[in-house]
Amino acid sequence: MVGGCPNGWKSFSGHCYLFVYKRITWMNAGIECHNRGGYLVQVDNSHEERWLTSQLKDEVWLGMNDTQNAGHWRWSNKSIVSYTNWRYSEPNGERSENCGCYCKIPVTGLVSIGMTDLTNNWICLPWIRQCTFTF
Ligand SMILES: [Ca+2]
Asked: How far is Cα 6 from Cα 1, in angstroms, rounded to an integer?
């Protein structure tokens, strides 16, 4: 245990994060998170964003998506996305881009992308998950 987190997880401000560098689809990343008792990462403020992006070794999926209603972003736990720092010209793609990611390194903000855009070279398929521990 490090900072209240299981081995291999990183601790920041009361949350535990597991960074997994394995390229899979957004849907499968969500399933893998779920199977391990977690969910795709949620980023609530600039403080958390700065820390997370400083740790990144590659592009990653985030939990944010607007699959239910284009332009209305939700986290994978269904909560409304209240903090967004979109990269210049993002979000774009309208209905064809339903996921948010940190998929241009170095990260200068969120990028919207299609969840099945597997032919894009720069697609973000590694994923992070987050879970909250009670201390
Ligand atoms: Ca985009």
From this structure: 5
The domain ranges of the chain are 17-84+99-120
State which CATH number among 3.40.50.300, 3.10.690.10, 3.40.50.880, 3.10.100.10 fits the domain covering 17-84+99-120.
Answer: 3.10.100.10
**CA nearest to 131, candidates 51, 76, 56, 53:** 76
Stated pTM of the model: 0.82
Give the distance (Å) from ligand 1 centre to CA of residue 14: 31
pLDDT in tens, 63-74: 899 999 999 999
Q: How far apart are CA 44 and CA 35, in angstroms?
A: 23
**Residue 54 vs residue 28, higher pLDDT:** 54
Distance 135 CA to ligand 1 centre (A): 38
CA 111 to centroid of ligand 1, rounded, Å? 5
